[in-house]
Amino acid sequence: MGIASDAVLRRLLTEEDLTFKKAMNMASIIEQASKDANVLHSRLDNTQEAELEVLKLDARAQSVPQGKRLSKQEHSHYKCYRCRATTHVATTCRFKDAKCHACGKMGHLQRVCKSTAQRGNNRLRDRA
User: Fold this and answer.
1) CCHC-type domain: which residues (predicted)?
2) pLDDT surpasses 70 at 1
């Protein structure tokens, strides 16, 4: 029976009054901590890979030429905040220079205007 890890061996050699039982217990704890660290590192790698995929998808969506429509399957989970379409992202929306007929601000349509919704809620409160 030997110690496979140099790190465990070095740690055990720093202990005073080391018994066999204490050495086995410490080796077991250190090895388990190492395994847990590897699992955690693996999970972090998976999380970072997922974040990278999201960033790649976002970068790809923003690099689409003006007017080019993306397939519904590629961006069905995206919704353009300027016009509420799912076939493109806001950076490529043809209404990014449009003037809202509800609030007068540039960059969105009346049907997605947040100012209109806010005014509607205020009117309901005023009537009550």
Assistant:
1) 99-115
2) no
What is the reported pTM? 0.34
**Does residue 45 belong to any structural domain of this protein?**
yes
31 lies in which domain range? Answer: 1-63
Quick one: pLDDT at residue 75? 47
Give the number of domains in the chain.
Answer: 1
Computed over every residue of the chain, the mean pLDDT equals: 74
Q: Minimal CA–CA distance to 23: which of 12, 35, 10? A: 12
Is residue 55 one of the residues assigned to a domain?
Answer: yes
Q: Residue 95 domain-assigned?
A: no
The sign of the torsion formed by the CA atoms of 71, 73, 77, 83 equals: positive
Q: What sign results for the dihedral spanned by CA atoms 102, 108, 109, 113? A: negative
* 84 close to 111: Cβ distance less than 8 angstroms: yes
Q: pLDDT (tens digit, 9 = 90+) per residue, 65-103?
A: 555 555 555 545 567 889 888 888 888 899 999 999 989
Assess if residue 38 is contained within a domain.
Answer: yes
According to DSSP H, which parts of 1-128 are helical? Answer: 6-13, 20-62, 72-75, 114-127
3-class secondary-structure state, position 99: strand
